[in-house]
Design goal:
Distance between the termini: 46 Å
Shape: globular
Helix content: under 10%
Number of strands: 21
Structural class: mainly beta
Number of helices: 3
Strand content: over 45%
Order of helices and strands: HEHEEEEEEEEEEEEEEEEEHEEE
Radius of gyration: 23 Å
Length: 444
């Protein structure tokens, strides 16, 4: 474990040790006047530097409280999304953990007779965020970001993001570095997003470098207990088995996950990134009567291509062993680590894949069209999937979406969307679901 932690600390410590020049008292504390302004391009650029970059992110708020020279900035923003739609061919909306989230791993197999459709209207995809930037426009700019909202399932308000950023360091509850925020997907009404997207919120400490002629890198450590992108807990990504081979009761995971990436950007929307994550799983070998540690890993190629000013292409392909908690559709399933039948008492890391492609077309400043296709797949777990709960029997899933968004004005956006999903099991066959929905979104 000591050697595992030396690499990230060797990079993070020099950043912390940088001399604290330009640390004069921020304007908010020196008695200078504050002002409420409509967010200017300069202020938006400052706050966007450390805001989340993801498909469902709240854009820079329309108004901000700033000091005279923008040395201090406070924003409060949010979204209220009213979604109406219906399922066609199945009843995914009423499945546990789904609701307005089009979770393809929860599509009922087979479709329940007499329940092959549902209509809904719901406002349970709203959120509010607050961001504070101190010492803006200086090398010591520090940002605090907080976001709370509903999770699309019930009226409970949950914490979705909470982190601090300073000099490239970020710590708190945030998107994992293994996720490529810009390449995962075009925007969707669906809060869940593509089945094969690498998407996970983790408790993380990370460092992102500045750009060196287009090259950047990042390195972090994650706590190996995870949440979905919608903010609700799905539990450990390993199973609890109790059979003649092994018993993996809830062991504390004492070694953090280590995500990292290196990227080259030709321009804002022409970029390529290579990402990786190293994981360790601790379990009890009941045959040998001792603790063991199993190493798992993941690698991903992702990025964007902008062939013309109005077009943006998205791509992401990830493969690894034991990375189920990072793949959108596999998170929450219990097959990242399973007993190794060839070696009684031992565990093995399951191979799995997550892949997406997508495209955005912006014919005008008010109109946007998006399309995407995705696949999530897992291998080598048929014996355990067939013996487990029906809802956990998962082989692969396909996800497709097309949508259109129209900005009525700077506050209101109208969207319409068609979704298609297919879930395949190991021994029960497969099933499809389609969804048509519309959204009226108010952003402030």
């Amino acid at each position: 474990m000591k050697h595992t932690l030396l690499l990230p600390m060797a990079i993070l410590l020099p950043v912390i040790a940088v001399s604290a020049e330009n640390t004069d008292t921020c304007d908010i504390a020196s008695g200078k006047k504050l002002r409420l302004i409509r967010t200017t391009p300069e202020v938006a650029a400052i706050v966007n530097e450390t805001r989340p970059h993801e498909a469902k992110a709240i854009p820079a708020p329309k108004f901000a409280i700033t000091s005279d020279n923008n040395n201090f900035i406070l924003t409060i923003g949010g979204q209220i999304n009213v979604i109406a739609g219906g399922d066609i061919g199945n009843n995914l909306y009423n499945q546990s953990g789904a609701g307005i989230s089009f979770v393809t791993s929860q599509i009922p197999v087979p479709a329940v007779k007499g329940q092959k459709g549902d209509f809904y209207i719901t406002p349970l995809d709203g959120s509010v965020d607050m961001q504070v930037v101190g010492f803006a426009n200086t090398p010591n700019a520090v940002t605090g970001y907080l976001k709370v909202g509903t999770n699309g399932v019930n009226t409970n308000v949950v914490l979705q993001r909470a982190y601090i950023s300073w000099r490239g360091l970020t710590g708190g509850m945030k998107l994992t570095l293994f996720q490529d925020d810009y390449a995962c997907q075009p925007p969707t009404i669906d809060p869940e997003g593509p089945s094969g997207c690498i998407s996970n919120v983790a408790y993380e400490l990370s460092y992102k470098s500045k750009s060196y002629s287009g090259f950047r890198f990042a390195l972090g450590v994650d706590v190996p207990t995870y949440y979905t992108s919608n903010g609700y807990y799905r539990g450990h990504d390993y199973a609890e088995y109790d059979n003649k081979q092994v018993s993996t009761t809830n062991y504390d995971q004492i070694i953090p996950d280590i995500p990292a990436w290196v990227e080259y950007s030709f321009s804002s929307w022409n970029r390529i990134r290579l990402s990786g994550v190293l994981r360790n799983f601790r379990y009890k070998d009941n045959v040998a009567g001792k603790d063991r540690t199993l190493t798992a890993w993941g690698a991903m190629l992702s990025g964007n291509i902008q062939p013309a000013s109005k077009w943006i292409l998205y791509y992401q392909a990830a493969y690894g062993k034991g990375i189920g908690s990072y793949i959108q559709d596999i998170a929450g399933h219990t097959y990242s680590f399973i007993p190794d039948d060839a070696n009684p008492g031992r565990m093995s890391a399951s191979p799995m894949l997550g892949a997406n492609i997508g495209v955005t077309f912006n014919p005008t400043s008010k109109l946007q069209f998006n399309a995407m296709f995705s696949e999530a797949r897992i291998w080598g777990v048929s014996d355990y999937a067939n013996a487990g709960a029906e809802a956990d029997n998962y082989k692969y899933a396909l996800y497709g979406a097309v949508n259109c968004f129209y900005n009525i004005n700077s506050f209101l956006q109208l969207g319409v969307e068609y979704l298609y999903g297919h879930r395949q099991t190991w021994n029960m066959g497969g099933a499809n679901d389609s969804r048509v929905q519309a959204q009226l979104s108010f952003t402030f």
